[in-house]
Amino acid sequence: MYTLSKGGSDASVGYGKGPFVSLVSPPPIRVLCVDDNHDAAESLAMILRLVGFDVVVCFDAPTAFQAATRVPFDVCVSDINMPGVSGYDLARQLRSAVGGTALFLIALTARTSDEDRVKSYEAGFDLHLVKPADPLELIATVRSNGERMASQRVVPPPSTSLQRSRWQHA
Question: Whole-prediction pTM value?
Answer without folding.
Answer: 0.75
